[in-house]
Design a protein that fits this description.
By secondary structure, the protein is of the alpha/beta class. The chain has one domain: 2-Layer Sandwich (Nucleotidyltransferase, domain 5), CATH 3.30.420.60. Helices cover about 35% and strands about 20% of the residues. It contains five helices and seven strands; from the N terminus they run βββαββαβααβα. The strands form two sheets. A five-stranded mixed beta sheet has the order 3-2-1-6-7, with helices on both faces. Strands 4-5 form a two-stranded antiparallel sheet. The longest helix is centred in the middle third of the chain and has 22 residues.
Length: about 150
């Protein structure tokens, strides 16, 4: 069965950017068009951290250890996955798509999988663990065609 049938959505995401695309032709000659773009400003953890790591005396005299500071950059990526899962649920619930392909790095796919509503999970027809957010759409079309031809 063809994956990229007419009307199939493709989510291209990473931890900071997401493209919601719709295939307006068929699986042999996909024509992906942007439905929505989501972007998050997520500076590096160093830029987001206000403090140096704390110290813990640990109870034993003369022993000190550093405490890990919150990784704000990773936390923002998790929140972005939450936002994407919510957008997908609203779109699926409103009938905007019946089928969707998820394309994201493995960690983001994992985050999305854990946060997606069953209504969205039931519509996922394929997952591809690649980072394609900075590729032009015509290249994404070619890459997906090659991926699904295998």
């Amino acid at each position: 069965m063809a994956i990229l049938t007419k009307g199939t959505w493709v989510l291209i995401a990473d931890g900071e950017k997401a493209l919601f695309l719709r295939n307006d032709l068929d699986a042999q000659d996909p024509d992906l068009n942007v439905v929505r773009i989501e972007q998050q400003d997520n500076p590096s953890d160093r830029e987001q951290s206000a403090n140096r790591p704390g110290r813990n005396t640990g109870g034993s005299p003369g022993q000190k250890s550093t405490m890990d500071d919150t990784d704000w950059h990773e936390l923002a990526k998790e929140r972005f996955a939450d936002e994407l899962a919510e957008i997908l649920y609203k779109q699926a619930h409103s009938g905007a798509f019946g089928r969707i392909v998820l394309v994201a790095p493995p960690a983001i796919l994992g985050e999305l999988r854990g946060k997606m509503h069953k209504e969205v999970r039931d519509r996922v027809v394929a997952e591809i663990d690649k980072t394609l957010t900075n590729h032009p759409i015509d290249q994404i079309e070619k890459l997906l065609t090659q991926e699904f031809a295998l």
